[in-house]
Amino acid sequence: MNILAFGEVLLRFTVADKMLLEQTDDLHLSTVGTGVNLLSSLAHFGYDTSILTVLPNNPIGKKASADIRKLGISDKKVIYQGNSISSFFVELGQGARPQRVTYQDRLASSFSQMKASDYDFEKALSGVDIVHICGISLSLTDQTREAAFKLAEMAHERGKAVCFDFNYRNQLNKGNTHLMMKKRYQKILPFIDIIFGSKRDLTDLLDYQEKDETKLYRKFCQDYQINFFAGSNRSFVEGKKYFAGFLFHDNKIYHSAAKELNILDRIGSGDAFASGILTGLIEKWDFDDTLEFAIANSVLAQASMNDSPIFSREDVFNYIDYEGKNDLIR
Amino acid sequence: MNILAFGEVLLRFTVADKMLLEQTDDLHLSTVGTGVNLLSSLAHFGYDTSILTVLPNNPIGKKASADIRKLGISDKKVIYQGNSISSFFVELGQGARPQRVTYQDRLASSFSQMKASDYDFEKALSGVDIVHICGISLSLTDQTREAAFKLAEMAHERGKAVCFDFNYRNQLNKGNTHLMMKKRYQKILPFIDIIFGSKRDLTDLLDYQEKDETKLYRKFCQDYQINFFAGSNRSFVEGKKYFAGFLFHDNKIYHSAAKELNILDRIGSGDAFASGILTGLIEKWDFDDTLEFAIANSVLAQASMNDSPIFSREDVFNYIDYEGKNDLIR
Amino acid sequence: MNILAFGEVLLRFTVADKMLLEQTDDLHLSTVGTGVNLLSSLAHFGYDTSILTVLPNNPIGKKASADIRKLGISDKKVIYQGNSISSFFVELGQGARPQRVTYQDRLASSFSQMKASDYDFEKALSGVDIVHICGISLSLTDQTREAAFKLAEMAHERGKAVCFDFNYRNQLNKGNTHLMMKKRYQKILPFIDIIFGSKRDLTDLLDYQEKDETKLYRKFCQDYQINFFAGSNRSFVEGKKYFAGFLFHDNKIYHSAAKELNILDRIGSGDAFASGILTGLIEKWDFDDTLEFAIANSVLAQASMNDSPIFSREDVFNYIDYEGKNDLIR
Amino acid sequence: MNILAFGEVLLRFTVADKMLLEQTDDLHLSTVGTGVNLLSSLAHFGYDTSILTVLPNNPIGKKASADIRKLGISDKKVIYQGNSISSFFVELGQGARPQRVTYQDRLASSFSQMKASDYDFEKALSGVDIVHICGISLSLTDQTREAAFKLAEMAHERGKAVCFDFNYRNQLNKGNTHLMMKKRYQKILPFIDIIFGSKRDLTDLLDYQEKDETKLYRKFCQDYQINFFAGSNRSFVEGKKYFAGFLFHDNKIYHSAAKELNILDRIGSGDAFASGILTGLIEKWDFDDTLEFAIANSVLAQASMNDSPIFSREDVFNYIDYEGKNDLIR
Amino acid sequence: MNILAFGEVLLRFTVADKMLLEQTDDLHLSTVGTGVNLLSSLAHFGYDTSILTVLPNNPIGKKASADIRKLGISDKKVIYQGNSISSFFVELGQGARPQRVTYQDRLASSFSQMKASDYDFEKALSGVDIVHICGISLSLTDQTREAAFKLAEMAHERGKAVCFDFNYRNQLNKGNTHLMMKKRYQKILPFIDIIFGSKRDLTDLLDYQEKDETKLYRKFCQDYQINFFAGSNRSFVEGKKYFAGFLFHDNKIYHSAAKELNILDRIGSGDAFASGILTGLIEKWDFDDTLEFAIANSVLAQASMNDSPIFSREDVFNYIDYEGKNDLIR
Amino acid sequence: MNILAFGEVLLRFTVADKMLLEQTDDLHLSTVGTGVNLLSSLAHFGYDTSILTVLPNNPIGKKASADIRKLGISDKKVIYQGNSISSFFVELGQGARPQRVTYQDRLASSFSQMKASDYDFEKALSGVDIVHICGISLSLTDQTREAAFKLAEMAHERGKAVCFDFNYRNQLNKGNTHLMMKKRYQKILPFIDIIFGSKRDLTDLLDYQEKDETKLYRKFCQDYQINFFAGSNRSFVEGKKYFAGFLFHDNKIYHSAAKELNILDRIGSGDAFASGILTGLIEKWDFDDTLEFAIANSVLAQASMNDSPIFSREDVFNYIDYEGKNDLIR
């Protein structure tokens, strides 16, 4: 199984020792992005993965590629052009103090400035079974939008399974209006087979009026011929946090049990869920097992540092089997 | 609004990685003190602040000044004299293992040895609206006591609002007896407008016998013409820690709701509360809002490293608004 | 009181910042082992302790000795021979993600390869009151087994109190079968006075059939003339972890209360319990007090980094006295 | 003496432990820029300094301001607008391996995007004696160029001493041609009193043909009514590095002795030299003393980490006095 | 060009901050080995590389694989078996204090215990142009020796270019005698095309008597039909260290100029030289250029941390072109 | 051989990463002092050592004791009393930028405040062969002076070899005048057998007028019946630093060769020299060999972090034998 992700790669600067940025000069760098996170997890589940992105041809771009390889993702399709990579800072949270994420400019990056016509999508798609496209591309620049549309269309035409996640961020590009964003999503959806999102993406972005969740998803999947629709959410009950997910397929909705969260670093929780779902679909597991696996992968990822999950299938199954059991004393 | 604090500045050596001091050689340094903590928070709420203290004229003193500036406090009134700064070690806690604080000698420091007559209080008070004096000065040396009395008196005479916090530490100076300490506090109280303390300060230090809390505070405030009396406390219920506070004014007591604590570093919690209260009084907020703001500032501070709170008003309001809400998945 | 421990010393590489090993290159080294952990705690309770082990005669062995001394243990009986020390990696856990321990080869170490005949046990036992032998020695190599048997026998003959902990790890040496391991334990038990273990050690390793716990321990202690049998265990109730222990003596079983755990690093919890029990027995404390002290020592140790407890008696008593009390605000 | 600098503030990410970026994830952050570096040094020499720049109104901008204050520079004139700050990575060198600097995009930053008309230069100049403008502003965007021209003109008209350093970087903005850059420098030079640059700036950028150094500088200073022209350079002789400088004034050139360099971090060497020269001019020192002081400040700065010099006058004089003397043994 | 290396992979623990191991607990981990080092450099020069080795199937083995991928080397041929990986500690040197390397046991590792018959060499060689075998395999165990012989023979028969480096370490396995080692080297040499070693390898290990260097190499290369023989050495002249190399081919010896060394971390200098030589041979560069490139790559590597060179061709050419030139001041 | 040192123990805070204190919050702690340094080295040369000092009875004092034990020194004679330990900050140097040491107050420490009458010197001296007293005790307080005199006298009377080093620091205690200090040194000298100092100590402190070095030492040793007088010094020639020493005995002066220094951390160089001299005297080595050994030990110590040398005899001999030899390439 060979999976390609198209998307922005970012540098993440994590402020050390649970400090606030204003308090320290020590940062830990990691290379992340929805595509990177998803592929990292899928690579650790045993699949061949590669990323299609653009990095600057300098030591920063080379560092990002080295990190990508370390995560188990092939960097053979990375294009080196332009002079910048997007970045953001993360201040880890503690109890009531939330994790805080602050982005730098994302529109001047090598990825955001790369013209759609400069990609060789035909070559990038060769040998690939599944293509993942991140919705962020629809919010960045005209170049990234055009590239996303073109890749989605070409992959769809060539019979690849096309995954997409909403990742709706209207505020990323000040020029974006609600209407413009809605049209862009509507334009890409006909090419998609598997989609990750939330109820709110359908109601707030796509202006669906349906209140009943099952009917809503049914209508949406029919409208765009979506095969699978899945999503996850965090909830807060009596001072505890929980994580749960759903999977909609063939007119039917499946819900996972909610698992308690003990968060070390919450970023990438949706990507960890998505890679778990994709693994279940690839392996044709029962949908309930698939959801349990996806939630477990995400709960583990949220109890770990950095965005990119690196758990093996055994790690996830162990967590499912032994969670909360009494343990021996050494 | 221009606020001056008078008090001891200390070096804090935090043992790294939640280790015990005996286990590691890695320390994180920060520059702290009741005055520093209070002003840091007030500076981040948008006020002009400056500290009146004494530091050694060497790289250690210069480091402390640089840290003070970084916190947003003016170091223009710092006096460089003597050859030492007080210090303490902090070993962070975990669960049942409490945070442990160990002080080095505090009586030989530049601040403790500075004669009251060597200060130019007239100049220090120029342009200042509020003066804060920390009760620790009453426990250290004859020099610090005399300076505190003189400054309180001069500020009061010049119509400045004078704040004071009890911070009662009898054991600091072995020569101190209960009677001596009581007299010292009684001597400074007539100059004070706003005071931070606890019920216990009144009963144990000042020997008030009144059991009813409201009556007790009423009597105390009448005796010394105190305008505002406020305090906070930590409680422990069914394995969880909570933080709450009160504000007494004009014969009436106001209580905050108790907020759950998830402590990363508990030092400075009272200073964070005090700076929140002062902000509410300056801004003439409703007393309940003032208490909610002060408690929130302190809860956030206790969920953060180091003594000195650096949250903006927006940070505190965000915590109040969104605390415990369900959140979205990225 | 002079206590000697015989056993394997290991290097522990703790992965920094709660990361997974695959995520970082930063490691913290500590020198550990059941004997080291136990003696470290006993040394901090005020006893003379020394370790009998074998280390390579190179900078790695010298580092281990320096660490042992730092823990308060005499290294005068350490033998320098061979060329290796065993090691393991620790990835700290968070919430649902368990702490993970991965061992490197333990059979090629200086300790595992040292012949029993090369020890001078007579000299090692001189001046010693209590000898502790770790059951791991029975799982490693023929050399460590023979040394353990010989030392146990000689110490017993010379009237020393001999302690032993099961620490049953069949999988350590692939050549070990259940039957072989059972016979080895049966061979050493007649020399033992105080033993640390669990119900499962008796049923699964020694094949006792008795279900009733008190009867089981009675039978076992009678069979081998064991004076004291003690053990601890971790349990999981409604999302919380608890720690409790028992002590069996003179046909009677004593149980501690269960204390809630907030784990920073769980390794060495049994050693912390054992050193607490030994202290109670040495000091001839009431058995309930002994258990409370041992549980408290272990709860504190599990809330601290590294295997080797370094709490003083005062630290443990303070925890017992003040645990969960409301505290003052600075 | 009150000095204002106008210019870009950048985040510098220094790769830890003399590693290459590809080898580690540990970074040290510092806040730098020609203006920051110059003012930091001048503040440590005892002058009042403030920076006029634009930072994003988020935790990153606040961090930069905190760092600026820590360096002794007032942040009262900082404008918070836009959403980004420029940044670069530094890999420290060792022997033959040169220090490597890699920039991210600098044109999308808050500073680069701030319109000249949005500054209140009148207010910014109030109370200021000397204004420093960095030539980088001429290479970035139309906005930064216009702001630099306007500020230079206004400061000149109001009788402030205006300093400028060439810092010629044609490649910064791809749209820049040699001719365009030349015209921009020619446009600002008539407003300048003190200028930092090199022979090459005059010959390569401004197309002067004169070969004789003294004549060249004379012609240049006459053409634009420049009062002082100074510059520094690094040379390499028999495996050793040296640092030297010159100062041209009133038709006469002064040369410093060359000092051997032992570089820890070479960035900011020109800024350290410039702040030394300015100090000599402010204090009306002899020109030879001024050059010796400026070279010493820069040699010390290059033997220290980070761009921004923080040496006091005493530090610099001590270095001049005791350099290379035999020292005592403790 | 596709290059395969066969050999031991080791964990390197570098003691932090130029400390001695006894002084600190902070270690930096890296994954190294002659094969890893050589391939890392070749991958950064643009070739496809993969390593044939054996790692434990646990988080330690997975960490090593992740590091290998990060260096640009394919881990697809890594075999997961056994339970250990070799390791060593490095204490960096300073001036007269030499860098110190201390190995742990290397014979119990997964690699040392893997049977030759368990490798699928046929598959490993498919698609490969050049095979590199490290001489360490001849010193470890019977299994590694047999595997090395078999791989060398099979690669030679299939027309691959076979490289070998002496890396003679008699003391690694106490069972090794001079005669045994000599015979083992004599057994593998007939399959080798390119060999890295020193004069001393020929005289001390292989007992050649010839004193004249050129004649010696001629005889050796004729005896075993070696196509290329190359080596490097460090020399010490008047307090400075220099690095130089030679290449023997077709009866002729070529010598590089000696370059001054400024060592940060000297390990892997021979591997950096070898990868430079191989690159020159692959690209059919002039032999003098090849030597200059190889020496430059090694000088840069010795001025960098860790064993594995990660310089690009551009980095090496830049060093050759600009070394020792005067530079500009920013 | 059993050696006791009497003296102040200090905490040393080393600023991390060659930064200046003002630049960073990261500190490395070590426990040092002339006695600690000397004994650490002697312990690593194989002797039994113990320190007689006073530490606070709190986690800071316990940390210091743990560090002392780690260095191989017995802490059985440490007295826990008072509430403070002296401390200083170290900023490491680079090239022209000198290492900078800044002390905090040293007169309020547990050691400085301990009364001479509270020591049990009789017990402390039992079993001891050599006693070392540091001259710093003569500069601190009346208590430390009296204790030093009493111990020197008692040790002398009991036939112990008494060592002393001048370590003349007049400025430590502002009350000290030249005359007072001279008298104090004159008072202790009659009890001393072996003394470490410099020519300057004799001329500047003791007011000797003799210019000829040999005659000067002869006169001094005769005046006070000193058996051995030794000292070391650092010199600076053509940009390089050198280290050399002398030993005066029986009317004859011996000089070492000067060794080039490559300093990482220069503190403790005199202590490393002294421990080398003492070792030579204990072992009755030839005086030239003794000096070479002492110089080598100090050169190695200055090329290492921290004050306390931890080199074994083999380390020192290896340095002497192999220094500057050409080495092999791995």
UniProtKB/TrEMBL annotation, chains A, B, C, D, E, F:
Residues 4-299 form the Carbohydrate kinase PfkB domain. It comes from the Bacteria. One of its GO terms (molecular function) is kinase activity. InterPro entries: Carb_kinase_PfkB-like, PfkB_dom, Ribokinase-like. Keywords: Kinase, Transferase. Belongs to the carbohydrate kinase PfkB family. This is Sugar kinase.
